[in-house]
């Protein structure tokens, strides 16, 4: 579904991503892990079109994504849930979800998607008329994910969904993501610093360090890798 080939990207003349190659198949749950500053968020921003590439190629369902305007990419089925949630604080929960449904597929499937979102995140149904800025951090993260789902995506990109959350709340968020993936077959690409959890749930994973992919493999292969065990799992 998503093919990233020898991608280079950065800010100004400063490269952040160097020769990154990643593949995500339809229906997969792929995790990208690594330390702060590795380039994980920059990768997502390049896929979305926020950061222009310096080199390489990105294809989505066979389409040259770099030839497609950033504003048109969500209509292809790409939903980017950004780091730090970034909900619209002055809008209600319901209005935030409406904003997510701005794609053609989102508008077409609005009723069905809203029902699914409220099933996956019941608290959003209970607080549908509440301003998003009044929600807790965990509830805002649920809303950010739900807003992405409201667009009827084929690929859901989650950037650090556990960021800034208490461990118990982060665990709940992970469980919801797993439930959504298992129940819908949605393709998920997740950037996450909680390496143990990310690799446990993912079909496959990539390790990004200093802008380069240094390891890749199934969750079993990565979890049993001595470098991963020592650097990220504390084993």
| Total of helices | 11
SSE order, as H and E?
EEEHEEHEHHHHHEHEHEEHH
Care to count the β-strands?
10
Estimate the mean pLDDT confidence: 93
Regions with little confidence, pLDDT below 50 for 5+ residues: none
Globally, the shape reads globular
Class by alpha and beta content: alpha/beta
- Side by side, the strands of the main sheet go 6-7-8-3-9-10
Proportion of strand residues? 25-35%
Largest sheet: 6 strands, mixed
What fraction, in percent, of the residue positions are helical? 25-40%
Please state the CA-atom Rg, rounded to the nearest Å: 17 Å
Distance between the termini: 34 Å
Please explain how this structure is put together:
- The chain is built from 11 helices and 10 strands.
- The protein is an alpha/beta fold and 235 residues long.
- A 6-stranded mixed sheet has the order 6-7-8-3-9-10, sandwiched between helices. A 4-stranded antiparallel sheet has the order 2-1-4-5, covered by helices on one side.
- Strand 7 (155-159), helix 8 (167-184) and strand 8 form a beta-alpha-beta unit.
- Helix 3 (93-100) runs parallel beside helix 7 (137-149).
- The longest helix is centred in the C-terminal third of the chain and has 18 residues, at 167-184.
- 44% of the residues are buried.
In summary, what is this structure?
The protein is 39% helix and 27% strand.
């Amino acid at each position: 579904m998503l093919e990233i080939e020898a991608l280079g990207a950065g800010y100004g003349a400063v490269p952040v991503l160097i020769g990154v190659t990643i593949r995500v198949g339809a229906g997969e749950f792929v995790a990208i892990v690594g330390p702060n500053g590795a380039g994980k968020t920059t990768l997502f921003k390049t896929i979305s079109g926020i950061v222009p590439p310096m080199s390489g190629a990105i294809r989505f369902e066979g389409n040259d994504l770099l030839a497609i305007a950033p504003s048109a990419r969500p209509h292809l089925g790409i939903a980017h849930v950004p780091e730090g949630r970034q909900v619209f604080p002055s809008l209600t929960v319901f209005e935030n979800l409406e904003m997510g449904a701005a794609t053609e597929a989102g508008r077409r499937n609005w009723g069905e998607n809203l029902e699914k979102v409220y099933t996956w995140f019941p608290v959003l149904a209970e607080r549908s008329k509440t301003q998003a800025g009044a929600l807790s951090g965990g509830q805002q993260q649920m809303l950010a994910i739900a807003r992405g789902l409201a667009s009827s995506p084929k690929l859901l990109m989650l950037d650090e969904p556990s960021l800034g959350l208490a461990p118990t709340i982060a665990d709940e968020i992970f469980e919801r993501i797993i439930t959504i993936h298992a129940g819908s077959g949605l393709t998920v690409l997740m950037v996450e610093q909680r390496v143990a959890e990310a690799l446990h749930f993912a079909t496959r994973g990539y390790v990004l360090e200093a802008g380069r992919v240094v390891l890749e493999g199934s969750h079993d292969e990565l979890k049993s890798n001595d470098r991963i065990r020592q650097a990220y799992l504390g084993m």
